[in-house]
Specification:
Blueprint lengths: L1 H10 E2 L6 E2 L10 E8 L3 E8 L2 E9 L4 E5 L7 E3 L4 E3 L2 E5 L5 E6 L5
Antiparallel strand pairs: 1-2, 3-4, 4-5, 5-10, 6-9, 7-10, 8-9
GO biological process, one term: carbohydrate metabolic process
Protein name: Alpha fucosidase A-like C-terminal domain-containing protein
Pfam families: Glyco_hydro_95_C
Length: 110
Amino acid sequence: MAFAAGIQEMLIQSHTGVVHIFPAIPEEWQDASFEDLRAQGAFLVSAERKDGYVASVEVYSEKGWQLRLKNPFGERSFEVSGEYVMDGEVIVVDMVEGEKVQINERKARN
């Protein structure tokens, strides 16, 4: 059980009230993903990392709380499927019960 908890802490952390995606994975792990890991606030979170960068995050709200997600995209542009505001480096989305929000890296348009 401790091993699984340790791996989950590498993939997602939310004990401060802010969800952090891939906060402690080794840099050698260029590609990684997870599905439906629980985060504080009754959220199920899925995410994908490609070539060393977060590519997408999906959050499902079980109870309808405010999502506070540390921006996993850094300086890269991203898009959110719902309304959001920025609070410093934190993406804030007011969610309703049963809502799903998709947050993706914005691809350059030709």
